[in-house]
Amino acid sequence: MAGNRGGATGSGKDFTFVNSVVKYLLFFFNFIFWIISLLMVAVGIYARTVKYAEATLASLSVDPAVMLMVVGVLMFLITFCGCVGSLRENICLLQTFCISLVVIFIIQLAAGVLGFIFSNKAREKVTEVINDAIVHYRDDVDLQNLIDFGQEEFGCCGATTYLDWSNNIYFDCNKTNPSRERCSVPFSCCILSRNESVVNTMCGQGMQEREFAEAGKEIHTSGCIDMLVDFIHSNMFVLGGIALGLAIPELVGMVLSQILINQIKDQIELQQYNLDHSSDPWS
């Protein structure tokens, strides 16, 4: 009978298979991520309403606020199932929570494997995203700051080369372009001296008109894709550790929810057994 299995607590009429430690550990585990999901949605909504640039609305793929809201909403729904399911000992909600984590884990694993196998396709997609961001560089302050930060940190300029900045209407090298920034690149492309305390924001003026070797004396001419690939290769163990760190909470959630589901099923079997034998004088 189910009553012989381990993990039960209590005795007599108070006997239960549901371990309170597992139950409340799963609840607090989900509650923490539930709060985090609410903060993510709030930050995403705030960022979206404060800076609703028209060009950004036309290019949602480069807007971190939308991505933050989507991830936050999904996390909220999944952790809500985990919180309520553990407190109410609801098998349906717990199974929904567990299956969701399994699906997310499989998607992450598949994305990593496919990204490794089809690295060229992944490279093309990232290049497309960066070029799309370059097009909208002046239309969104947050996007502009993100690109500048990336170019300064990685010491790069553009997606594959500094000439990619011609994709932006302000930096376009076309002779008919009336912009004062024609044929220029952002100041974040410039090679800055360690002794420089004040950044010359005009240091990228007219750099697209110069030859590669000449421009390379004052700006970074390599694209950010190559620098990003080099960064990934040189920090493979660190990135692997981060990926493992993200996977561990999912695995913990899966294990705890499955343990609780099994305990609840055992408890239901015990209750049914007691109900069936409640009128038996020999029970």
UniProtKB/TrEMBL annotation:
Question: What stretches pass through the bilayer?
Answer: 24-46, 66-87, 93-118, 237-261
Q: What is its main location?
A: other
**Topology in the membrane?**
Multi-pass membrane protein
Query: Which Pfam family name is an example for this entry?
Result: Tetraspanin
Name the UniProt key words of this record, in alphabetical order.
Answer: Cell junction, Cell membrane, Cytoplasm, Disulfide bond, Glycoprotein, Membrane, Transmembrane, Transmembrane helix
Q: Which cysteines are joined by disulfide bonds?
A: 156-189, 157-173
Concerning CDD domains, the annotation shows: penumbra_like_LEL
- Cellular component per GO? adherens junction; cytoplasm; plasma membrane; pore complex
* GO biological process per UniProt: pore complex assembly; protein localization to plasma membrane; protein maturation
Location(s) in or outside the cell: Cell junction, Adherens junction; Cell membrane; Cytoplasm; Membrane
Protein's UniProt keywords contain Iron-sulfur: no
Gene Ontology molecular function: enzyme binding
Xref: PANTHER family? TETRASPANIN, TETRASPANIN-33
What family is it from? Answer: Belongs to the tetraspanin (TM4SF) family.
What protein does this entry describe? Tetraspanin
